[in-house]
Design a protein that fits this description.
This is DUF4442 domain-containing protein. This protein is an alpha+beta fold. The protein has four helices and six strands.
């Protein structure tokens, strides 16, 4: 974003209290890809000493929300982005800091075309959660919609 406008990470931290609570770190935020880090914080550990599943869920959901903001920022005056449903899979033990990488599952232009046609488009966002060694510890697919303001 420009020098005068807040970054996607700053917007997320200002509007989503859980982003601040978990100290999420937005390291990349474009309409094509968002990368968010969850620092290793003992106050959010589970019974095996890694990040609690709720913290991992929030990490992935926040990454998905950030890519929706980045991709559809110019549509926010006429539609509200809302999550519709999600599926989460926890695959491997998560320990230490984690990274969530989100990508859109449909082209932005296709979603906007549906919105232009008076529809309420739905689109998936895919998120991988990885440990420092690169192992995927979990993944999430969140289906979002752009609900027209009318």
């Amino acid at each position: 974003m420009s020098e005068n406008l807040p970054s996607i990470g700053e917007l997320m931290a200002a509007s989503v209290p859980m982003v601040r609570t978990l100290n999420l770190e937005f390291t990349e935020a474009t309409a094509e890809r968002v990368v968010v880090g969850l620092p290793d914080q003992s106050e959010y550990h589970n019974h095996v000493g890694g990040p609690h599943a709720g913290a991992m869920f929030t990490l992935a959901e926040s990454a998905s929300g950030a890519i929706v903001m980045a991709a559809f920022m110019d549509q926010l005056s006429r539609a509200v982005p809302l999550p519709v449903r999600c599926e989460t899979t926890y695959k491997k033990l998560a320990k230490g800091p984690l990274t969530a990488t989100a990508v859109l599952g449909r082209p932005v232009a296709d979603v906007v075309a549906e919105l232009d046609a008076g529809q309420r488009p739905e689109f998936p966002v895919h998120v991988d959660i990885t440990r420092q060694d690169g192992a995927v510890t979990g993944d999430m697919t969140i289906v979002w919609t752009l609900r027209p303001n009318d």
